[in-house]
Design goal:
52% helix, 24 helices, 706 residues, 4-stranded antiparallel beta sheet, elongated, alpha+beta, 5-stranded antiparallel beta sheet
């Protein structure tokens, strides 16, 4: 047992912290908008709503399933099937004592609905009914044992899919010998399947960004502003006039004037052809600066991928100077991809697989010491520039010696033209036109390569696990964790009066979710509360989700009268001008248990629940800007000695309302998925009833449902 030490009296609320490591909790995470297994509206056909409700149940999200199932039953569509799943949703994750009057009424209504069907759904629902009746009137004599054997026989006659559904959703209902027999069957299945189906290899793919189809990187046709076009035209006319005038003066005195003129034209052509290599920024095809927000996001993505490639490919090699060596490459790639893939339709990380190719090419050059090697084209450009300068200087001297009084005219015109053309970006326009056909051919060739990469990436992610499979693995982990804990304490299932399993993201975990689905994490911190006759046992472990490995166990035990409170706390963390600040306590929200289950009843027009019956000020940014805060939900258990345990429920970052993921919905989803709803309900009762909780829990369990 962990020693309980009283906290200092001046102890303040824990400040929410975020890790800055790549892919950590607090980062935006991966959002797969293409998966719509949880998307159904009131106007959708009943078959789609029923299908989505079943998906919610498969992911152990019964509250969301109930609303859809009731709407389907109201339309009398697949009445038996819908009523059977409604019964599961009502009982899912609850003990008999947790069913209030509304829950009991709904369960009786669901049974009446399924009674009207005469098919296999009625058979499965009758098994649920018989289990409930058996739990309500347990008998320890021979007759009671015979009844239990009869119910178990009916249960075993069900199809495997129905048996697994009942085991998963009604697990917390079963007690005494009934639970022991069913648990033995489920434990055998979990041992064989918990890590099966290539879980370790496939789970990381769930957290991979959704690849976005490659687009053509051909830049828009070069254009000039009308004012720039006028200046550039005047500059070209002046330059041509000055060159012809100077050449005519040079020809009056014979010599090698024509040879120099031809040489100068050759040098100018070489300069125009090689300029993009020598000055890649000035002559970049992407001249327009993308929006600042788009550039910042793409710059972060490019930097992240380049750093990941360096870290994965270094293999002990020295990487000193990598950031400086790739700075120009990253800047060019940021400008290009921010221009091409800056649309909001492109999901975060959607072009990481394309950036990775450039990062890998850069790494090969860096490893071979060729990344900063001066291109031969740049050297040729410098040679051509020196030759042209020598020709121009020789011509100027020749004209000054031959016609000193007339030399100022052509020299002045040519000099002014040389200043005006770059100032108007006319040189960029002309050189871009010169290279336009080559740009078009290179963009087409590059698009073919990137389409191959896209097809390969889709193939790699083809066996990505879906959200319901991730939920099933997590549920198996919870059950496996509970089984280990009971063995460690030398306890049986009947020794546990009530229990709750909570999950929170581990520090540094990657996260991902599908549309209208909960966040899934690459690693968790898992908590279990076992309530027995002697008190509460709390155990916490770290779960590596891909491998299913449990580690770093911490155990604590305390009496019922040691629990002071259990609550949900919301902390606003404002990101403002690259600064992070936690909202002061006056702007935080502490939500009593009633508001957890009835948020809609207390909802204000701004979407925030008013738990005090008065208007609660919405969290503001730390400055006068309109930056929205990030809402961090915490579950906190406080003991009378002021020791406290805090579990992170969810970080509600910026929400895209266009996909229907509003903050209220995500709050309720996070509470259900993390197990906090159940834990809060039980521990609030413990805090209020103290040592009398055991007696009251037994009384609540004796209520009649059917």
């Amino acid at each position: 047992m962990k020693e309980q030490k009283p906290a200092p009296k001046d102890e303040k609320d824990t400040e929410a912290t975020f890790s800055n490591a790549e892919g950590t909790v607090g980062a935006q995470g991966v959002f797969n908008d293409e998966v719509t297994i949880y998307v159904a509206g009131p106007d959708d056909p009943p078959d789609q709503r029923l299908r989505v409700a079943k998906n919610y149940l498969a992911a152990l999200l019964p509250s969301q399933a109930q609303e859809l199932l009731m709407s389907v039953i109201a339309e009398r569509y697949c009445q038996g099937e819908a009523a059977y799943y409604w019964m599961l949703a009502i009982l899912s994750g609850k003990a008999l004592a947790d069913l209030d009057e509304e829950g009991r009424y709904r369960f009786r209504s669901a049974w009446k609905q399924v009674e009207q069907s005469n098919d296999h759904w009625l058979t499965a629902a009758k098994v649920i009914k018989d289990l409930i009746v058996l739990l309500q009137d347990p008998q320890g004599d021979a007759a009671g044992t015979a009844r239990m054997d009869q119910v178990l026989a009916s249960f075993e006659d069900l199809p495997e899919e129905r048996r697994e559904e009942i085991r998963r959703h009604l697990d917390t209902l079963f007690t005494t010998g009934l639970r022991r027999q069913l648990e033995h069957i489920r434990a055998e299945r979990i041992r064989g399947q918990r890590l099966g189906n290539e879980r370790k290899r496939r789970v990381p793919k769930f957290f991979e960004p959704v690849p976005y189809p490659p687009q053509s990187t051909l830049s828009p046709r070069p254009t000039l502003h009308p004012a720039q076009a006028v200046v550039a035209s005047v500059a070209i006319l002046m330059g041509a006039t000055g060159a012809l005038w100077g050449e005519s003066l040079s020809l009056r005195h014979g010599g090698t004037g024509p040879v120099l003129a031809v040489s100068a034209l050759v040098c100018v052509a070489l300069l125009g052809w090689l300029a993009p290599v020598r000055f890649p920024v000035r002559f970049s095809p992407w001249q327009e600066d993308p929006a600042a927000k788009t550039s910042d996001k793409m710059r972060a993505a490019v930097k992240r991928v380049f750093e990941r490639v360096r870290r994965n490919a270094s293999d002990g090699e020295s990487t000193k100077g990598w950031s400086a060596a790739t700075r120009a490459v990253q800047a060019a790639l940021t400008r290009e991809y921010a221009s091409v893939y800056g649309s909001p339709k492109v999901p975060p990380g959607g072009v990481d697989y394309l950036i990775k190719r450039h990062a890998q090419d850069a790494w090969k050059l860096f490893r071979d010491g060729k990344l900063n090697t001066r291109p031969r084209e740049a050297t040729r450009f410098d040679c051509a520039a020196i030759a042209l300068a020598a020709i121009a200087l020789g011509t100027v001297i020749r004209i000054l010696l031959a016609e000193p009084t007339l030399a100022a005219g052509p020299i002045g015109l040519t000099f002014c033209a040389g200043l005006m053309l770059p100032a108007s970006h006319g040189d960029v326009f002309l050189i871009r036109l010169l290279h336009r056909s080559r740009e078009r051919a290179m963009a087409a060739q590059r698009l073919l390569v990137e389409k191959e990469l896209y097809a390969k990436r889709l193939q790699e992610l083809a066996d990505r696990p879906d959200d319901t499979e991730m939920a099933r693995w997590l549920d198996d982990d919870k059950h496996y964790f509970r089984t280990l804990v009971l063995k460690q304490y030398g306890m049986e299932s009947e020794d546990v009066i009530a229990e709750a399993v909570l999950t929170e993201p581990a520090p540094g975990a990657s996260r991902s979710r599908v549309r209208r689905g909960p966040w899934r994490y690459s690693s968790y911190r898992m908590w279990i509360y076992l309530l027995t006759n002697s008190g509460v046992r709390q155990i916490a472990v770290h779960l590596d989700f891909a491998s299913g490995t449990l580690s770093n166990q911490e155990r604590t035990a305390f009496r019922y009268d040691s629990v002071a409170s259990a609550s949900i706390i919301e902390i606003g963390i404002c990101f403002d001008e690259d600064r992070r600040a936690v909202l002061p306590p006056s702007q935080r929200k502490r939500r009593p248990p009633a508001s957890v289950f009835d948020t809609e009843a207390n909802e204000k027009s701004d979407g925030y629940p008013d738990t005090e019956g008065n208007e609660t000020p919405r969290p503001k940014s730390t400055s006068n800007t309109n930056v929205e805060p990030v809402m961090l939900q915490l579950f906190r258990l406080m003991l009378v000695n002021r020791e406290r345990f805090t579990v992170t429920v969810e970080q509600l970052a910026e929400v895209d309302e266009t996909v229907g993921d509003d903050v209220t919905y995500l709050r309720r989803l996070a509470l259900d998925d993390s197990g906090v709803s159940s834990a809060l309900r039980i521990l609030e009762q413990v805090a209020a009833e103290g040592s009398d909780w055991v007696r009251h829990a037994q009384m609540r369990a004796e209520q009649i449902i059917l």
